[in-house]
Amino acid sequence: VDTQAPDLQRVLDTEARLIMKHGLQRARRSVSTLANTEVDKISPNRQENPPNVRVVESLVTARDWSLMFPLRNNIYTYRSFLQAVGKFPGFCETENICKLSLAVIFAHFTQETGAHDGSLGYPEWRQGLYYLEEAGCESTDCGYSSNCAQKTWLTETWPCEKSSAGRYNSYHGRGAKQISYNYNYGLFSTYMYGDASTLLKSPDLVAKTWLSLASAIWFFLMPQPPKPSMLEVLDGTWIPNGNDATANLNTGFGVTTNIINGGVECGKGSELPQSQNRQLYFRRFYSELKIEDRKWLQNLGCSDMKEFPSNGGGAQAIYWEQDWARRYHCKLVSYATPFSALVPGDYKRCVEAKFKISIK
């Protein structure tokens, strides 16, 4: 029985042991981040760019970027794209997985931010990154702050900030992923700044800096149990089990659509226009990036897919919760809590919060 509060080293050792025991090293590494001071140094053709940025530069040049996204908002610069890539060293580590990752992420943010206007003189697959903010929400929050006054663990963990006018900040969709709601801004901010409050106080940063593209890469890399991350689908880390098979969840592009917007677009019996768009865009980027493995052109749709099951292959335990059997300990669970096992230091914060102690 633990009767004495642990010191910092003991807590760090316990965290490391649990991460190792449950095989979370790979997931944690995939969402690890580069210091912003180093991200700020990244620029096209810079010899000292991080290895994964150099991989991307070899596949997508500034000219390619302009060809693929000729109607993009001015914020979505090629340099911003490279900085967003560089923020996440676990993204695009090798050429093959990078090509596939880019085809998937380009297809999805073309659907999310594309002009979808046949009169513009460009095919729709080249109309991505047209929008920076959710249409109609720039001056009103479109209801995204409706939960801010509620007392829940989501608002306690990521409290909505107010403007100088006394109104809650607007957490509407911004950037290539159209990130929305206070809890997503807060969690994204933790990865970008090590501080949830930065983007809760200044959500406009997602629409004014390279964060506009980093948000899409972050979402691509993040597991959301029982959903795997999109990267885990592509690199084979996610292995569908029998429960996934029953839900018609098979490896392929269609699963990534289910991850990003399954509740709206998947399981409807026939492919909805949004899903059809994503498939079309994916095939075009697949071709542009010269991907040779044809297997990824199978299982493109999601019309027959159900929700990810709670006992499926993606149901990882990646959150910390109080261990009721052991004093001064937290344990891993698969349901969401304020403490993520993918964020270094959150184990310590869990122990401190649950047992009301300060660990030095």
Task: Report the average pLDDT across residues.
Answer: 96
Give helix and strand order, one letter per element, not per position.
Answer: HHHHHHHHHHHHHHHEEH
Q: How many angstroms does the end-to-end distance come to?
A: 21 Å
Discrete helix count: 16
Determine the structural class based on helices, strands and strand pairing: mainly alpha
Q: Could you say which overall geometry the principal axes of the C-alpha atoms support? A: globular
What order do the strands of the largest sheet run in, or round the barrel if closed? Answer: 1-2
Strand percentage: under 5%
What is the strand tally? 2
Biggest sheet record: 2 strands, antiparallel
Global Rg: 21 Å
Helix content: 40-55%
Stretches with pLDDT under 50, minimum 5 residues? none
Model description:
Helices cover 42% and strands 2% of the residues. It is mainly alpha-helical. The chain has a two-stranded antiparallel ribbon with strand order 1-2. It is globular, with a radius of gyration of 21 Å.
